[in-house]
Amino acid sequence: MQLDGRVKTLHPNVHGGILARRDQSHHMEDLNKHGIGTFDIVVVNLYPFYETVSSSASISFEEGIENIDIGGHTLIRAAAKNHKDVLVVVDADDYPALLQFLQGEKDSEQFRRELAWKAFQHAGAYDAVVSEWLWKQSMGGERFPPSLTVPMMRGCSLRYGENPHQNAAFYVDKSLSAVNVGGIATAIQHHGKSQHIPMDSAKLIHEVSDKIEYNEMSYNNYLDADAAWNCVSDFKNPTCVIVKHTNPCGVASRNDIIEAYRLAVRADPVSAFGGIVAFNVEVDEDLAKEIREFRSPTDGVSRMFYEIVIAPTYSEKGLEVLRGKSKDLRILEAKKTEKGMLSLRQIGGGWLVQDSDDLTPQDIKFNAVSEKLPKERELSDAEFAWTCVKHVKSNAIVIAKNNCMLGMGSGQPNRLESLRIALRKAGEEVKGASLASDAFFPFAWNDAVEEACESGVVVIAEPGGSRRDNDAIDCCNKYGVSLLFTNVRHFRH
């Protein structure tokens, strides 16, 4: 009985030959009694469930169910449990090592255990994807399941973590929700320290080719590149974002992307030096030349140095020019990160899971609560600053004018100090600028709101919701400043 192939391997004659322990005489006697032979190697390719349900083709629920492997899983688990006597192989990349083992060139016990570990990991990841798919098919709008397993596959080991004494590795998210969502994890590196080719995330990378060195991006490179790419992807107009230590230190939007680049650098040239530069438009030859030759505004002599350049695409000439800037410059090509992703963050003994912060100015309403209403340009600057502040570490303040960041304050334990840092960076250009705060101001008089008004800003955008909102309104009315409440907070811890 096979039931359309569903039970062809689910048979005592098969599993008896796999699970029987060779060092137990009564096991071998039972096999002989029933005329069952032994298996020394089990090689299994599971039904392509992941490939089927993640394909662009629309499939029915029934088709998805039929692509769930049962017998293959059972074979894998049985062989892995009895790995002392049975070799289990679930990855074609292990065939060369298997041949070496069979020829007596590998350590027996260690190799068997490695294959057993890989078998259970493979089966577990497979089941995690099936579980994720079934949850989405059956639970409707419920966002967070009662339990959550995230399958991850190592893309590469990293030189070190945040600091040289910390070991680290990069993993690719193999969840169905991460299929074709873009982002830095799947970026293509065209040039730079140890150029890498696009990773086949369906395979575990074991060895580095003699001719191609895989990604030498550092742990901090990944964090900074992700921050820069997420920020620049939030803007609709041609935009340049420069990030240092995960904070945007320069942001500018212009129809002329070269002008946007220059303005982004000038916002904070000291921080921009050695940072990550991201664009949301193609890097062509002209822009590449500007990136290669632009001199630091601090001395007018030194060429600007960057760790990474990121863009959605590059012209052939643009790539050629950028490659000539430095042999170490990493040039990444990334797809825009899709909305609707889950954000996971580890704490001691657990994980925090939330929706990603996907809101843009088009998703909210800027409500004027002051007597003075903002002009069209001022409102545009407020929206620009509000988009920037979402990507700045709390407490966050961003000052912007003409769709260009003039100054930002981040990561301070109080909002007043963040404001003063932003004002210092903005300098005299603050007059006529718009200001955005990631959360409400707890105090207004003789505090952040009044200092902002006295500096010359013409618009303040903040969520509102403080018990002292009326003080902020009265203060802005006194100084003739427009106050906008967004009713949306953007804490970024």
Automatic annotation (TrEMBL):
SMART domains: AICARFT_IMPCHas (SM00798), MGS (SM00851). GO terms for biological process: 'de novo' IMP biosynthetic process. InterPro entries: AICAR_Tfase_dup_dom_sf, Cytidine_deaminase-like, MGS-like_dom, MGS-like_dom_sf, PurH-like. GO terms for molecular function: IMP cyclohydrolase activity; phosphoribosylaminoimidazolecarboxamide formyltransferase activity. Pathway: Purine metabolism; IMP biosynthesis via de novo pathway; IMP from 5-formamido-1-(5-phospho-D-ribosyl)imidazole-4-carboxamide: step 1/1; Purine metabolism; IMP biosynthesis via de novo pathway; 5-formamido-1-(5-phospho-D-ribosyl)imidazole-4-carboxamide from 5-amino-1-(5-phospho-D-ribosyl)imidazole-4-carboxamide (10-formyl THF route): step 1/1. One of its GO terms (cellular component) is cytosol. It catalyses: (6R)-10-formyltetrahydrofolate + 5-amino-1-(5-phospho-beta-D-ribosyl)imidazole-4-carboxamide = 5-formamido-1-(5-phospho-D-ribosyl)imidazole-4-carboxamide + (6S)-5,6,7,8-tetrahydrofolate; IMP + H2O = 5-formamido-1-(5-phospho-D-ribosyl)imidazole-4-carboxamide. Gene3D superfamilies: 3.40.140.20, Methylglyoxal synthase-like domain. Keywords: Hydrolase, Multifunctional enzyme, Purine biosynthesis, Transferase. Residues 1-90 form the MGS-like domain. It holds the Pfam family AICARFT_IMPCHas. Belongs to the PurH family. NCBIfam families: PRK00881.1 (NF002049). PANTHER family: BIFUNCTIONAL PURINE BIOSYNTHESIS PROTEIN ATIC (PTHR11692:SF0), BIFUNCTIONAL PURINE BIOSYNTHESIS PROTEIN PURH (PTHR11692). This is MGS-like domain-containing protein.
